């Protein structure tokens, strides 16, 4: 199976390499793989498969372990095995593909040895999805995007303490306000769960579970699907517009697709590239990365769509002197048009080149962005040119 390596750099002295595999993440640091504590080995049979005795080892079938410091049967040292047919004090050795390991021809076990479980966490990312993952890191938190999955964040609280969870965004982002005659009515407008939300005509899909809804000045999240005109929702902020046509549905959902690119820029967390809105950028509130409350204040969340003759999906976002946006049809920059920070009233989006980008995450290197051109035959270096007061993308 293929795997994907992603760097995690808290500081110059605290760096990790993350191995994304089929529904798991493993961790490496200081030239070694992160393992759990020692389990003392007291026996190892010559059999097919070999059986390890380790009192109260606590392993489960399917766990991966590394054996070391075994005397006698040294052939098993420094190798990775898959736990099978585990009992309280024993387990069988399988190779990493799940095949029994025949130790009958090995040397006889004499003494010693420890087993260490490989530390890993479970994910929902399949092998075929690994190379479409995009990430952005802030201190001990890594935000992860993929169009088939809700935005997640990987948090480190200790060397062997990592958690992966879906991001619970505050108020948005939302699609444009409804312009049709469809009304939404809620069984209760106060904050709470188990409320019924009814549409005057077909609107909802079963894939809307987990999607946010803005109703009037309030909002909440769909928690259950009943029919195309009725869902259950939890109200987070009192929904004052019950029975009106003033409503919006969340921009991120299994129905519309989830963001495919992410970056930090000027104290904002930025997402882009959903299936339904491939050219739209979603900016969080300034300094509040998971809050997408829109408005006209300088620190309010923002939504902008790149205006172009063609609809070309955004492939990557990278923060340099400006925010660099790579699409399938060309490369753009987002800035305030001056030395000011971006706000809802001064965002400027300019096209810099028309080479187009493949769906491979770009790399910021010094003051340039390296990206793979659309046809995957050339690597280009997007760099600011002071003489032209713009960016050029040289063929490397």
Strand and helix layout:
Elements: E1 4-9, E2 15-21, E3 24-29, E4 32-33, E5 35-40, E6 43-44, E7 51-53, E8 64-68, E9 79-84, E10 90-94, E11 114-118, E12 120-122, E13 134-138, E14 141-146, E15 149-158, E16 161-166, E17 184-186, E18 192-199, E19 212-215, E20 218-227, E21 230-237, E22 247-249, E23 261-265, E24 268-272, E25 280-283, E26 302-305, E27 314-319, E28 323-327, E29 331-335, E30 348-353, E31 363-365, E32 368-372, E33 379-385, E34 390-395
Antiparallel strand pairs: 1-2, 2-3, 3-4, 3-12, 5-11, 6-7, 7-10, 8-9, 8-11, 9-10, 13-14, 14-15, 15-16, 17-18, 18-21, 19-20, 19-22, 20-21, 23-24, 24-25, 25-26, 27-28, 28-29, 29-30, 31-32, 32-33, 33-34
């Amino acid at each position: 199976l293929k795997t994907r390596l992603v760097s995690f750099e808290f500081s110059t002295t605290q760096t990790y390499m993350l191995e994304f595999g089929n529904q798991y993440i493993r961790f490496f640091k200081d030239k070694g793989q992160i393992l759990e504590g020692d389990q003392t080995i007291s026996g190892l049979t010559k059999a097919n498969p070999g059986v390890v005795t380790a009192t109260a080892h606590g392993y489960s079938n399917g766990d991966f372990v590394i054996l070391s410091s075994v005397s006698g049967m040294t052939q098993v040292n420094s190798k990775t095995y898959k736990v099978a047919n585990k009992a309280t004090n024993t387990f069988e050795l399988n190779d990493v593909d799940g095949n029994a390991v025949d130790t009958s021809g090995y040397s006889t076990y004499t003494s010693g040895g420890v087993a260490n479980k490989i530390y890993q966490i479970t994910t929902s990312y399949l092998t075929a999805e690994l190379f479409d993952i995009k990430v952005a890191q802030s201190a001990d938190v890594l935000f992860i995007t993929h169009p088939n999955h809700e935005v997640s964040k990987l948090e480190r609280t200790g060397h062997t303490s990592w958690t992966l969870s879906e991001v619970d965004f505050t108020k948005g982002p939302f699609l444009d306000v409804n312009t049709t005659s469809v009304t939404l009515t809620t069984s209760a407008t106060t904050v709470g769960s188990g409320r019924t939300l009814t549409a005057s005509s077909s609107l909802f899909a079963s894939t809307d579970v987990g999607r946010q809804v803005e109703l009037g000045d309030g909002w909440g999240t769909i928690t259950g699907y009943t029919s195309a005109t009725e869902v259950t929702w939890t109200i987070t902020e009192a929904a004052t517009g019950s029975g009106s046509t003033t409503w919006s549905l969340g921009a991120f959902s299994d129905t519309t697709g989830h963001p495919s690119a992410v970056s930090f820029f000027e104290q904002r967390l930025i997402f882009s590239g959903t299936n339904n809105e491939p050219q739209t950028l979603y900016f969080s509130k300034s300094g509040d990365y998971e809050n997408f409350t829109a408005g006209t204040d300088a620190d309010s969340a923002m939504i902008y769509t790149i205006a172009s003759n063609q609809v070309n999906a955004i492939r990557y976002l990278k923060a340099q002197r400006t925010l660099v946006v790579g699409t399938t049809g060309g490369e753009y920059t987002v800035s305030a048009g001056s030395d000011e920070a971006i706000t809802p009233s001064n965002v400027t989006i300019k096209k810099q080149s028309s080479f187009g980008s493949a769906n491979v995450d770009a790399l910021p290197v010094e003051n340039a962005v390296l990206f793979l051109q659309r046809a995957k035959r050339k690597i280009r270096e997007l760099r600011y040119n002071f003489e032209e007061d713009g960016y050029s993308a040289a063929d490397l």
